[in-house]
Write a structure and sequence with these properties.
By secondary structure, the chain is α+β, with helices and mostly antiparallel strands. It has two domains: about 55 residues, no CATH class; about 180 residues, Jelly Rolls, CATH 2.60.120. It is about 20% helix and about 40% strand. Strands 1, 2, 5, 6, 8, 11 and 13 form a seven-stranded antiparallel beta sheet that branches. The protein is elongated and about 80 Å long. The mean pLDDT is about 90.
Length: about 250
């Protein structure tokens, strides 16, 4: 009975506000002023409800770690920036070193920064990551713009030259551009680097880093990080809708 009564009262309230909107041209000014204040208070409460409902109901869900993994994957990871909301969602006029969270940092060498960064909520059905990262660049007189992603310590545990490191991205840009990925592996005092160009002919792009040809000291691997280098970024908007990492063994021949 309570639910029936609630639905009846809700219909009456909606009907009342519908009549008020239709008759607003003829309503006396004192009454119209009172209705406006009531509507504003109601509007604030409704906005809060919609905001909380969107955060819980919009797909993909916050914290989602669902993505495709190659057969034999022994470690995989989606950075938190693409999984959970940042404390500060956006940054305009980004400095030369702009830390977005504990693991993602933007670097550039442009004296006059016209670079904006924003975390955006993904809402499409085909999106697997809850959030995107949008990098918008206007005039750019520097020589490089890169996004550095530090991998967690687990990525280096039991890492050998028999592994492949796959980086998969969902990238969109307003204008055609080149994006390079550089995997850095620190082992003792040395750092090995592997550079690969990302194929942006399709939005879903991935690249495999083969560690077999690197001069790695497997016992001293300490740290891994990835650099995403955007070539000629001026007057462009690049959106990284997803970023994932997978570590798997090379197939036996």
């Amino acid at each position: 009975m309570d639910k029936l009564l609630d639905r009846y009262l809700q219909r009456k309230v909606l009907s009342r506000w519908r009549r008020a909107a239709q008759q607003a041209d003829q309503t006396t000014l004192p009454e119209l002023r009172r209705q406006r204040e009531d509507a504003r208070r109601l509007h604030r409460q409704l906005d809060q409800l919609v905001q909380k409902a969107d955060s819980r109901l919009i797909r993909p869900h916050v914290g989602s770690n669902r993505f495709s993994r190659p057969l034999g994957t022994d470690w995989s990871w989606r950075p938190e920036l693409w999984k959970a909301p940042l404390t500060r969602r956006g940054l305009a006029s980004a400095p030369r070193k702009a830390r977005l969270d504990e693991r993602v940092t933007l670097f550039h060498d442009c004296d006059r920064s016209e670079i904006a960064i924003q975390q955006v909520r993904n809402r499409r059905d085909k999106d697997l990551a809850p959030f995107s990262l949008a990098v918008e660049v206007f005039d750019f007189q520097g020589s490089f713009l890169s996004l550095s992603v530090e991998l967690p310590a687990e990525s280096a545990v039991d890492l050998t030259r028999q592994h492949l490191m796959r980086v998969a991205m969902l990238v969109e840009s307003e204008r055609p551009t080149l994006v390079f990925t550089r995997l850095n592996i620190q082992h003792g005092p040395n750092t090995e680097q592997v550079l690969r160009e990302l194929d942006l002919s399709r939005s879903e792009a991935d690249v495999d880093f083969d560690l077999a040809h690197l001069q790695l000291n497997e016992r001293r691997i300490e740290k891994l990080w990835l650099d995403l280098i955007i070539e000629q970024p001026a007057m462009n908007r690049v959106v990284l809708r997803d970023l994932t990492f997978c570590r798997h063994h090379r197939a036996d021949l």
